[in-house]
Design goal:
Layout (H helix, E strand, L loop, with lengths): L1 H26 L14 H10 L7 H17 L5 H17 L2 H22 L7 H81 L4 H30 L5 H5 L8 H10 L3 E5 L9 H20 L5 E9 L2 E9 L4 H6 L1 H12 L3 E6 L3 E9 L7
Parallel strand pairs: 1-2
Antiparallel strand pairs: 2-3, 3-5, 4-5
C-alpha cells in the first residue's frame, strides 16, 4: 500500500503543477492584449487544464483537443499562452508514451499548425519572438518526453538483462550440482564396487571351505578384512572430500590411479580366486593423465564384472598398442547373468569417463562370453 502511494506521488504532483500553470496562464492579465482571453475565450483557454489530467492514458486525444482550443483562440485573434504551454506538456506525453514514428509525425504536424495559426494572430509575421518562444517550448517538451522514454527503456533493458543473467547463473548452478552428483556417484562406484565384489567372492569361498579347508577359509577371511579396510578408508577419504571447502584437496585425498598400479590391481583379483591371464603389458605407451586414469578404471570395472557377472573362474586382459592409441580388451566366460553388467551404472559411467578422455568403448555379450574393448589415445613423442 505504501509503495503504491509513493509511486503515485510524483504523478499527482505533476498533474497539480500542470493544471496550476495552465489556469494561471489562462487568467493572467498580460500587458500585451495579444495574450489575453476574454469572456467565452476563457473556455478554450482553460479546457486544456482539465484535459491534461488524461494525457498519460490518451496522449493523442489530449494533444488534438489542446490543438483545437489553440486554433479557436487564434481564430479569435488571441495568442493563447495557456494552450501553447498545454501543447508543450501534451507533446511530452506523446513522445513519452507512443512509438517514436507516431510521436515524430504528430509533433511535427503540431509545430506546423501552431506556426501557421500564430502567423494569423500576428498579422503574417512568421518569426515573431513571442510566437517562436512557444514553438521552442513545444519542441523542448517533445525532446524531454523522448529522453524520458529512452531512459525508461534503458532501465527496463538493464533490468531484463540482470534477470537473464540471474537465471543463467541459477541454471549453471543446477547444471554443476547435477554434474557433481554424477561425479560423486562415479567415484563412489569406483571406490566400492571392486572391493565389495572381492568381499562377496571371498565370503563365498570362506563359507564353502570353513569345514573342508580351514586354511583356505582363513586366507579368504584375511582378504575380506583387507578389502574391508581398503573400502572403509576410501569411503572415509571421499566423505572428507565432500565436507572440505577446498576443491584442491581432491588429489590429496583421492590420487588418480593409472596403469602404473595395474600389477597391484591384478594381484588383488588373483588373490580373490580369479584366474587372470594378461598379455601385451610389457612396455605400454604413454597416455594422457585422463586416459591413464580411464585405463585403470577400465581394468577395475572389467575385472569386477568378470567376478560379479561372469562365472568368477577366469578372465583375460589384452593390451594392444597401435599408432596413436592403446586398445585394452577384457574377456571372461559368461555365467548367464550378463544383464547385470549390461544395465549397471558401472559401464555407463565408464563410457562417460572414456569419452571424456577422448577414447572409445564397446562391449559385447554372448551366451558364452562377455567382452569389453576400450581404445584410448596415447601421447605422441613430440608432445612429451
Amino acid at each position: 500500500m505504501s509503495t503504491n502511494r509513493a509511486s503515485r506521488s510524483p504523478a499527482v504532483l505533476g498533474d497539480i503543477s500542470a493544471v496550476a500553470v495552465i489556469v494561471l496562464l489562462g487568467v493572467l492579465p498580460f500587458p500585451d492584449e495579444t495574450f489575453r482571453a476574454h469572456g467565452w475565450q476563457l473556455v478554450p483557454a482553460l479546457l486544456p487544464a482539465a484535459a491534461l489530467l488524461l494525457r498519460r492514458r490518451a496522449p493523442l486525444a489530449v494533444l488534438g483537443l489542446t490543438l483545437i482550443c489553440n486554433t479557436v483562440l487564434a481564430a479569435a485573434g488571441v495568442l493563447g499562452a495557456s494552450t501553447l504551454m498545454a501543447l508543450a506538456i501534451a507533446a511530452y506525453a506523446v513522445t513519452d508514451r507512443l512509438s517514436r514514428t507516431t510521436a515524430l509525425v504528430t509533433v511535427a504536424a503540431t509545430v506546423v499548425i501552431v506556426f501557421t495559426t500564430n502567423m494569423l494572430v500576428l498579422g503574417g509575421e512568421p518569426f515573431d519572438s513571442r510566437a517562436m518562444q512557444f514553438l521552442a517550448f513545444i519542441v523542448v517538451g517533445a525532446a524531454l518526453g523522448a529522453a524520458a522514454r529512452s531512459r525508461r527503456e534503458y532501465t527496463t533493458m538493464m533490468s531484463e538483462r540482470v534477470e537473464r543473467a540471474e537465471r543463467s547463473r541459477e541454471d549453471e548452478a543446477r547444471r554443476r550440482v547435477a554434474e557433481e552428483r554424477v561425479s560423486i556417484a562415479r567415484d563412489l562406484h569406483d571406490l566400492v564396487a571392486h572391493q565389495i565384489s572381492v568381499i562377496s567372492l571371498n565370503a563365498g569361498v570362506a563359507s564353502a571351505a570353513v569345514e573342508t579347508s580351514p586354511e583356505r577359509a582363513r586366507e579368504a577371511l584375511a582378504t575380506i578384512r583387507s578389502a574391508s579396510r581398503t573400502v572403509l578408508s576410501d569411503i572415509g577419504a571421499l566423505l572428507a572430500l565432500l565436507r572440505s571447502d577446498d576443491p584442491g584437496e581432491l588429489r590429496t585425498l583421492r590420487p588418480q590411479s593409472g596403469l602404473a598400479e595395474r600389477g597391484t590391481l591384478f594381484d588383488r583379483f588373483r588373490s580373490s580366486g580369479l584366474n587372470l591371464h594378461v598379455t601385451g603389458d610389457g612396455k605400454l605407451p604413454v597416455l594422457t593423465p585422463a586416459a591413464d586414469h580411464a585405463a585403470h578404471l577400465v581394468l577395475l570395472e572389467g575385472l569386477t564384472n568378470a567376478v560379479k557377472h561372469g562365472d568368477g573362474s577366469r578372465a583375460t586382459v589384452e593390451f594392444v598398442p597401435t599408432t596413436g592409441s592403446l586398445t585394452i580388451t577384457i574377456t571372461n566366460p559368461a555365467s548367464g547373468e550378463t544383464d547385470g553388467a549390461r544395465s549397471g551404472h558401472g559401464l555407463r559411467g565408464l563410457g562417460e569417463r572414456v569419452a571424456a578422455a577422448g577414447g572409445h568403448i564397446e562391449s559385447a555379450h554372448t551366451s558364452a562370453a562377455f567382452r569389453l574393448r576400450v581404445e584410448l589415445p596415447t601421447v605422441s613423442p613430440d608432445q612429451r
